[in-house]
Amino acid sequence: MKSEIMRLYDFEFSGNCWKVRLLLDMLGLEYERVPVDSSRGETQQAAFKAVSGRGQIPVLEDGDVRLWDSQAILFYLARRYGRAGSGAPQAGAWLPEDAVGEAQVLQWLALSENELLYGLARARAALKFGRPFDVGACQREGRAGLDVLEARLAGHDWLVGERVTIADLACYTYVALAHEADVALDDHPAVRAWLGRIAALPGYRAMQGL
Fold first, then answer.
1. Are 57 and 10 in contact (CB under 8 A)?
2. Sign of the CA dihedral 175, 181, 186, 187?
């Protein structure tokens, strides 16, 4: 049994933090949230820089393990706790065991950190938090990422294989927040259906205010 509760440094309205919270909640893992308001520059203060010299959230502490970057944290949680028999109540195959399946997950993690982050996330950051990004260019990038998702999901329930994986959670959050980027999903019915499937998963918890 684990003697220490995991600690997650996060910001409620960060999509990257939300994807980590989703997996923690879906795995049924106990954790403490440490709020860090990145919209007010708290990630650049000395107290947080002592936790992560990178100055970005989320950061996960699990015993003597400390990790930054949402993708790395998803990968770690899935590998350590997301397998049947790991002790987590909702444990399952969140990360495929085979090389091809794992590589396919990494492909979608790349989409989440490129078209979806530089597109949907940055358009949202500009509109919601006043960040200095070109909203139109970001929206075009985000729609390109949505087209890739739609092409896959038109014939499949999930992004990799026959069940949900961390690939789905990695791509989910900024797509679910697309309305805050002023990007409509009307032309992406398969994406909308996929959002509904994720929201129906055990342990799902919406972002505050959605």
1. yes
2. negative
